[in-house]
Amino acid sequence: MKKRTFAKLSIMLGAILFQVIFLFWVPPLLVVQGPADVDYIDVGPYAGNYLVTDGYEGSVKIIDFKTRQILWRTDEPEFFVHDADMLPDGECIVVADTTPDRVFVMNLTTKEIIWDWYAKNQTRDAYCDYWNWTEYAIRQGWDNTAIAILENFNPPDGYYTHLNTVQFINGSLFNRTYDSILISLRNLDLVVEVNYTAKKGEPGYMNITWSYGIPGHRSILNRQHAPKRWLNGHVTIADSENSRIIEIDENNQLIWEYTDKRLRWPRDCELLPNGNYLIVDSINNRIIEVNKTTNQIVRTFSQGLNLPYEADLTTEGKVIVGNTMANNIIIYDYNSGGIVDRIGFNFLFMPLILTFGLIIVYYAIDCILQFRAMHGKSIKERLKFHKIYSKIILIGVLAGIIIAFNLLIAVMWNYSLWKMAEFLLHP
């Protein structure tokens, strides 16, 4: 009996030690750890490669998918960086640096930050040009609820705006005299566009030239992701916690929405060449293509997904997905829907799954040995013996957890403690 107890304790301690060593030793060896945004680069010196934001590591990288090599990287963003976009010249990138609530533009060659914009509501100082939200809210005619949120905001997730998306807007494509950057401020339920061209001291410097949403008015936007302006001037937004995708025109009028009752926490929407939309339905662990005219799903990608963040269709007919919670990038063939490549693997939960597997093997062998030792009794009598049926139940439960792992993670994320705290603080 003592030997059996010692064996069980040894297995448990060994499993814990294995997980600790695995989680500290393996991640630094990987090309990606927690990829969020993944963009194909079609201009500049890195054309043909991919721009990747690695949220867990706090870095932006350019990766050669064929050789699995990191061609360029910067650790300038802090932990939880969400998004990056290549500027039209292919020489600079714009980054959504979530932790300090800023957007910055970096030169790829020198790694110099040549432009930045801070979204916190603080007084301007000699080092940073913080935006004055109170002044802007009054100018926009927002109500006292919005102003109070902006002046006293204390979000439970620890990030003031939870700035999660940027898109560089080439003004010449819209008959403008200036370029701008489209920014999603998730915790403020607000999307803004900021003047990028004007220099310090010039009219329009750092000014918000367009906005959609009002803080606290969640029927308009509710913790949105991935606003994108398209060539027709319209903007699509993944209105995440309203469980819909919306499209608005230049006058901020809602002209289209997708509100399938099954949609749960959408976080990206891409316009495809055929006029359909490619939507990331995160908690349902799927990417869907929706016909804009009929609002029908015409294609689904789901194999291997675990809370995906963003998806793009490349000119080569591949769907590239930043599969954040699974710690990998998945590449699908658009026509067949099958996986053609992966970069990275689920190191975060693999030790746990392997441990469950080892426990299953241990108890299965133990169960077989006890079953054989009870010779002279019928199979029914053996199965009724508590030391056998209790192990069979445990094996079934652990096997079920492994099989339904993606679903369990999605449910836990959907009903996590931070959401409960958020509801209590901001009902």
Low-confidence stretches: 123-128
Number of strands: 25
Backbone shape: elongated
Could you report the average pLDDT, rounded to the nearest whole number? 85
Please render the helix and strand layout as text.
Blueprint: H1 2-25, E1 35-40, E2 50-54, E3 59-64, E4 69-74, E5 83-86, E6 92-97, E7 102-107, E8 113-121, E9 130-131, H2 133-140, H3 144-152, E10 163-169, E11 180-185, E12 190-195, E13 208-212, E14 225-229, E15 235-239, E16 244-248, E17 254-258, E18 266-271, E19 277-281, E20 286-290, E21 297-301, E22 310-313, E23 318-323, E24 328-333, E25 339-344, H4 350-373, H5 379-384, H6 386-403, H7 405-414, H8 417-425
Parallel strand pairs: 8-9
Antiparallel strand pairs: 1-2, 2-3, 3-4, 5-6, 6-7, 7-8, 10-11, 11-12, 12-13, 14-15, 15-16, 16-17, 18-19, 19-20, 20-21, 22-23, 23-24, 24-25
Helix pairs in contact: 1-4, 2-3, 4-6
Characterization of this structure:
- The protein has eight helices and 25 strands.
- The radius of gyration is 25 Å and the shape is elongated.
- It has helices at residues 2-25, 133-140, 144-152, 350-373, 379-384, 386-403, 405-414, 417-425, and strands at residues 35-40, 50-54, 59-64, 69-74, 83-86, 92-97, 102-107, 113-121, 130-131, 163-169, 180-185, 190-195, 208-212, 225-229, 235-239, 244-248, 254-258, 266-271, 277-281, 286-290, 297-301, 310-313, 318-323, 328-333, 339-344.
- The chain is 25% helix and 32% strand.
- Mean pLDDT is 85; it is low at 123-128.
- The chain has a five-stranded mixed sheet, with no helix packed on it. The chain has a four-stranded antiparallel sheet with strand order 1-2-3-4, with no helix packed on it.
- It has 427 residues and is of the alpha+beta class.
